[in-house]
Write a structure and sequence with these properties.
The protein has 906 residues and is of the alpha+beta class. The chain contains 16 helices and 50 strands. Helix content is 22%, strand content 29%. The strands form twelve sheets. Strands 19, 20, 24, 25, 26, 27, 30, 31, 32 and 33 form a ten-stranded mixed beta sheet that branches. A seven-stranded antiparallel beta sheet has the order 34-43-44-45-50-47-48. Strands 13-12-15-10-18-21 form a six-stranded antiparallel beta sheet. InterPro entries: 6-hairpin_glycosidase_sf, 6hp_glycosidase-like_sf, Alpha_rhamnosid, Bac_rhamnosid6H, Bac_rhamnosid_C, Bac_rhamnosid_N, Ig-like_fold, Rhamnosid_concanavalin. It holds the Pfam family Bac_rhamnosid.
Length: 906
């Protein structure tokens, strides 16, 4: 064991000219917002980082100031809140405690801290924030739409599926100081001001929430878009998730009329104001070029119906009809969006094009993804151009059967002969290949005819893992692309076929790795609000969120997202508010579990270990693990996590009650399903059988070795191949690492044959798949079905890249104390990456040459770390060039360390 002061002495010292106590940096609100407008919290939470350079390692106190006016100097008073000096090391999720804030309010904040020497830092740079419209009463406008879509007129599906065009002309007669557009829709919309798109990269706004309970709103600053004189505010509007079909539910397809709501608030430099709202004074038309729009079925565009200038001033809208209006429903909350919207984030060029018939060409973009194409192709007047999409070719042929009932086809009807330019607006596709047919076949297709515009919720991706293995790096990229594709306002299961739902089981598996790979906290916490809103009075959590009536029962391992996700987020962030917000939901889910149980044994329905390979039972898709065993194990797990939550929230009586219940469930689990040698009393012994018991701590301490040996025996019987589906796979690596068998994880990870991760890469995968054998280059798509090539659930293995290969885990919630234990193996000679924490990233970079390890570690400020090095030969360790006889380092101070040692068994 090395003392803290000795370790601190090993870190690099700053130059003498450097400031002793530098100001805090990277100020954030809530789950990661920087200088937001339209912010959603009336009681913001503040976070910051200590600068990673400088002499201060720790914070001992802080002071936050919030003001209605910007701070002009260090002594400027804070008129909204001054926390005073607060003795605390906490730098994240500090609650605002000042004067009440209201809708539209703009405020400025700054922070300083005191270090371990009780020296005060400089004040941080000032950051501003502006609240959105926080309550329905802030809205003066009404929902509007085209009169032909009024339900009283019994509109046809065709009418409801035809996008609407809406516009309002108004005058600006004096200089503008500020203009804010507050806007949303029942459906999806594209807003324009004076002929220009308000947010060119935002797509499919406002997104998908439980519309009967809450609709999110967006705020845009359009101050610079207004001109003196006549101005026009406009929008196009389609059904999106609100009125288009969900899954293969044709009976709900285009049954509801899309509606638009906007409020433009202008403040003039002379102090006067003007508000433009949606009402009957707006004009509307359905005679525009987009003739049909559907998430699943694509878009139809008619060039002859284009309306040049329809969204700008000076357009003749005499033939347009007055919009109809509907009042706001006070039961449906209008609230600012809690995370960044879906955006176009990058453009992929076509890497090849192949002519497959007269006027037919297939473009390959080299990457499975989600978004829409942008095409420039030669057209013949009156000859429709059809655009289809595919994830892979089936034995060389264009293949769409795995999209099931989703047509995923766009049509463009040209009115003129010549080059046309087209980009769909109100749909999205999951694809790698695109087939274009109907173009002028006298011209030879080229790759510059098409680009792919990648879309996903605009979370920041870290690109923070690499290794000496090309295939492992490819797997890492595949997982990231799967995340890109399925983080589409909600966590989808897949983005291409007639499903695209927020399945809770997939979310359970992928939550933690996604937090390592992206700035995803806001994304997940926003989705949890939807989970809370969809929970029924009995505590049941639907299989997918938002919920549309299709599958009416709940599943263990899926609905347990109500307890697992809040707890995992708390471990990763240290933010108690995520537990406070979801505690009632967690208790409700336990009530539902109890209602499905008898004598502590759960009989809840379950999808089982979904798509386990090589099943022997008739319920092939659900695997061989006993369903009741699965449900009881997850019942115990949910009780355990809710007990821990109660303890963290200071609810000690409830924590004690739940701890006792957890003990009772464990005893019942053991007695019901296992004999005294931990062999199943009935059914099949599976890898997941033991993974559940080990991961969820359901076996007595004295019998864990027996359970582990059974698991190892099952692995050996499968030639160290996994036999796990959606539930078991997410537990496999952590259980084996805890057992000291990271060698087996490496063996599983580097397998080349089915079922394995590298099997998919050997067969051309650029994302992660739904089945372990969804596709092969030789045989094409698996004839069993369920063949999405863009499912993220099996990407859960990437969690081990960070927690195993790099070896970083939170020893305390929010990584206030960090555990570092990298796992070395002869299959890798190097690995590097960063693990994000609320106090800054932990950096790990290791290389092994001739059994010599060089490990570079950076521990962020305001944290401590415990480092364990497996397989180190005693007496060979140096830290920053200084010899030490230790191999386990405790309470390491912030800083950079280079550790060198000789390794055995590598």
């Amino acid at each position: 064991m090395l003392p803290l002061l000795w370790l601190a002495a090993c870190t690099a010292q700053p130059p003498a000219s450097q400031a002793i106590v530098e100001a805090p940096v990277k100020l954030k609100l809530g789950e990661g917002f920087s200088s937001p407008i339209g912010y959603y919290e009336s009681t913001p939470r503040f976070s910051w980082l200590l600068p990673q350079q400088g002499q201060s390692d720790f914070q001992t106190a802080y002071q936050i100031q919030v003001s209605g006016q910007t701070f002009t100097n260090a002594d400027t008073a804070a008129d909204l809140w001054d926390s005073g000096k607060v003795f605390s090391s906490q730098t994240s999720w500090l609650d605002y405690q000042g004067k009440p804030l209201k809708s539209r309010q703009k405020a400025y904040w700054r922070v300083r801290y005191w270090n371990e020497q009780q020296q005060a830092s400089d004040w941080s740079d000032t950051q501003e924030f502006e609240l959105g419209l926080l309550d329905n009463t802030d809205w003066q406008g009404k929902w509007i739409g085209h009169p032909d879509t009024a339900l009283l007129t019994q509109p046809t599906k065709e009418i409801l599926a035809t996008p609407q065009y809406l516009r309002k002309t108004f005058r600006v007669n004096r200089p503008v100081k500020q203009a804010r557009l507050y806007v949303t829709a029942k459906g999806v919309f594209k807003p324009f001001i004076n002929g220009n798109i308000v947010a060119p990269n935002d797509v499919m706004t406002p997104g998908w929430t439980p519309y009967q309970r809450r609709i999110e709103t967006l705020t845009y600053d359009i101050t610079e878009n207004l001109t003196l004189g006549e101005n026009t505010l406009a929008a196009s509007l389609a059904g999106g998730w609100y009125s288009g079909r969900i899954a293969n539910l044709m009976d709900i397809d285009h049954k509801l009329p899309p509606r638009f709501l906007a409020q433009l608030e202008i403040v003039y430099q002379d102090g006067s104001s003007q508000t433009i709202v949606t009402d009957e004074s707006w004009k509307s038309s359905q005679a525009g070029p987009i003739r049909f729009a559907s998430n699943y079925d694509g878009e139809r565009y008619d060039q002859a119906m284009e309306m040049p200038g329809w969204n700008a001033a000076g357009f003749d809208d005499a033939s347009w009809q007055a919009a109809i209006s509907e009042p706001l429903d006070p039961q449906v909350l209008l609230r600012p969006k809690r995370h960044d919207p879906i955006r176009m984030t990058q453009t992929l060029p076509a890497v090849s094009v192949e002519v497959t018939g007269p006027g037919v060409a297939v473009f390959d973009f080299g990457q499975n993804m989600v978004g829409v194409p942008h095409i420039l192709v030669p057209a013949i007047a009156g000859q429709p151009i059809r655009i289809r999409f595919a994830e892979a070719l089936h034995k060389g042929e264009f293949y769409t059967d795995n999209y099931r009932s989703a047509h995923s086809t766009d049509y463009y009807l040209p009115a003129k002969t010549g080059q046309i330019e087209y980009q769909p607006t109100f749909t999205f596709h999951g694809y790698r290949y695109m087939e274009v047919s109907g173009f002028d076949s006298s011209q030879a297709p080229s790759t510059d005819w098409a680009n792919a515009l990648v879309q996903h919720s605009d979370i920041r991706l870290y690109n923070n893992f690499s290794s000496s293995s090309a295939k492992l790096n490819q797997l890492s990229q595949n997982v990231v692309w799967g995340m890109r594709s399925n983080f589409y306002d909600i966590p989808l299961d897949c983005p291409q076929r007639d499903e695209r739902l927020g399945w809770t089981g997939d979310a359970n598996a992928f939550l933690t790795p996604s937090m390592y790979m992206a700035d995803a906290y806001g994304f997940w916490s926003a989705w949890l609000q939807s989970v809370r809103e969809e929970q029924n009075e009995q505590g049941m959590v639907p299989l997918y969120i938002p919920y549309v009536k299709w599958i009416t029962w709940a599943s263990s391992g899926w609905g347990d997202a109500a307890t697992i996700i809040p707890w995992e987020l708390y471990q990763l962030t240290g933010d108690l508010s995520i537990l406070q917000d979801n505690y009632a939901m967690m208790l409700g889910w336990l009530d539902y579990h109890k209602s499905q149980s008898e004598n502590h044994i759960s009989h809840m329905k379950t999808f089982g270990d979904w798509l386990q390979p090589y099943p022997v039972s008739e319920a092939a898709n659900r695997g061989d693990t006993d369903f009741s065993l699965i449900s009881t194990a997850f019942y115990a797990r949910s009780v355990q996590l809710t007990a821990k939550t109660a303890q963290a929230l200071g609810k000690t009586d409830k924590a004690r009650q739940l701890t006792e219940l957890h003990s009772d469930i464990k005893a019942a689990f053991l007695a019901k399903f296992f004999d005294d040698q931990l062999l199943p009393k009935s059914g099949h012994a599976t890898q997941t059988t033991y993974l559940l018991g080990l991961a969820f701590e359901l076996f007595p301490t004295g019998q864990r070795e027996i359970a582990l040996n059974h698991l190892l025996g099952l692995l050996k019987a499968s030639d160290n191949h996994l036999r796990t589906g959606f539930l078991g796979t997410s537990l496999l690596a952590s259980v084996l690492q805890d057992a000291g068998r990271s060698d087996l994880i490496y063996d599983l990870l580097f397998k080349e044959t089915y079922p394995s991760w590298f099997y998919s890469i050997n067969n051309g995968a650029t994302t992660t798949w739904e089945r372990w054998n969804s596709y092969s280059l030789e045989d094409g798509f698996n004839p069993q079905g369920m063949n999405s090539l863009n499912h993220y659930a099996y990407g859960t293995i990437s969690r081990w890249f960070y927690e195993g290969i790099l070896g970083v885990t939170p020893a305390e919630p929010g990584f206030k104390r960090i555990s570092i234990a990298p796992q070395f193996n002869q299959r890798l000679s190097a690995a590097s990456g960063q693990v994000p924490t609320p106090n800054g990233p932990v950096s790990i970079d290791w290389k092994i040459t001739n059994q010599t390890l060089i490990l570079d570690v950076t521990i962020p400020r305001n944290t401590e770390a415990d480092l364990s090095l497996p397989d180190v030969m005693p007496g060979t360790v140096t830290v920053n060039g200084t010899a030490t006889d230790g191999e386990n380092f405790h309470a390491m101070s912030p800083g950079r360390y280079r550790i060198e040692a000789k390794l055995s068994n590598i």
